[in-house]
Amino acid sequence: MILDLFIMNGYGLYVWSAFAFTLFNFLVLYKVTSKQFIKEHDKFAKKYKSLDSDQIILAHKQSTNRTFVRTVAHKI
Using CA atoms, how far apart are residues 37 and 44, in angstroms rounded to an integer? Predict the structure, then answer.
């Protein structure tokens, strides 16, 4: 019964290899995206540290930066 699940009438090799290939690619994509996010986060944090008070107030008003500024401000 369990062996039939893996064999799948002769298509098991194709199905399971495609599944493994897809899972592997998702993991690689996750790692690359995560690494890029951390890199961009660090660049933003470095830039945010160098802002003066007027620029910080302006950054808080921009909706695109609002969420990101909150997370960086807590880590700084």
Answer: 10
Task: Supply 25's token pair.
Answer: 């690619």
What pLDDT is recorded for position 55?
77
Q: Where are the domains of the chain?
A: 2-75
pLDDT band, residue 52 (cuts 50/70/90): confident
Place of tokens 């986060």: 41
Helix (H) or strand (E) holding 2: helix 2-7
End-to-end CA distance of the chain: 57
pLDDT at 48 over 70: yes
d(CA 39, CA 43): 6
Cα 34 from Cα 46, distance rounded (Å): 18
- pLDDT value at position 24? 98
